[in-house]
Amino acid sequence: MKYIIAIFVAISIVSFTFAEENHTDDAKTKAEEYITACKTETGISDENANKIKAGDFSVRDEKAQCFTHCFFKKASFVNDKNEIQPDIMITKLSHKPNEKNEALETLITRCAKEKGESDCETSFKIYECYRGGASYESIRERQKKRLEISRAMRTCIFENRVTYTLAVQYGKGDFKDESDKGKCFLKCFAVKMKLFDSETGNPQKGELLNYSSYLSAEDLPFNEIIDKCDKDTERSENQCDFVFRMYKCLWNGIKNSPEPESLRNSFNDVFGFNQLFDDGEIKAELEAEAVMDETEVKEVKEANAKK
């Protein structure tokens, strides 16, 4: 979510507008023109229009819905046949239109599937979906979760003395390395994230389902995947081995789901592997967070000096 930009410039404060990087002033001017025209066309009050602009969806009557739809049509988010235009939305809402923004594309694609009983309600639902996904509170919570994931991942890399390369391999679904260190690295991460019980080693379905909400893919059948892997993965006294096989099962379940490429990218992303840059960076952060004692810090510095 760190790539998500606001659907409209200053949407939470004053107005609908879209963020075309090289045409910001022009976009704002056009947006104000659209707003004024849509107020007149729909008869919505200034108070309720301002609520919609601020993301307050307590106003849900026909005028509010058609005000949103009116703006969408004037912004070309909806065509003359009242069909949503995801590609145009992505282009106009991207902070850098010439650069691919997978997070934004995923959010728009997901929200474009929203349907209402009327064209006005459909636009309203799409806007509500996007506003919720790109809100400050939503972004903040996801950033906090990513920080938690990143710290757990980096700590477990150090504690189990595995390489950054191996962590990335696991994140990409490459489980050729079945070393004890690698398996215990995954178990360490799973326990720190409370995905598996530290005492019994059993998967915690509630936490796994909650964790899956950070995946970008909305249609992921994670509930079914968890149940199947929990049933099919043979228990073992060796918790590291069990978690490794369970993790492998979960990953394969996701990989074999519909739209495997997007799911594969999402899974790699949500597990925080994309947050790790190199061994030195990981160790430097751990040192800063006082995870290592003085002797270990010295060892790391000496090792880095030899590279």
From TrEMBL:
Is Lipoprotein among this UniProt entry's keywords?
no
Which keywords belong to this entry? Secreted, Signal
User: This protein's superkingdom?
Assistant: Eukaryota
Q: Which residues form the signal peptide?
A: 1-19
Task: State any single GO MF term.
Answer: odorant binding
Instruction: Give a Gene Ontology cellular component term annotated to this protein.
Output: extracellular space
CDD domains per the record? Answer: PBP_GOBP (cd23992)
Cross-referenced Pfam families: PBP_GOBP
The record's SUPFAM superfamilies line, in alphabetical order, gives: Insect pheromone/odorant-binding proteins
Q: Which InterPro entries match?
A: PBP/GOBP (IPR006170), PBP_GOBP_sf (IPR036728)
Alphabetical GO biological process terms: sensory perception of smell
Where does it localize?
Answer: Secreted
Tell me its family.
Belongs to the PBP/GOBP family.
**What protein name applies here?**
Uncharacterized protein
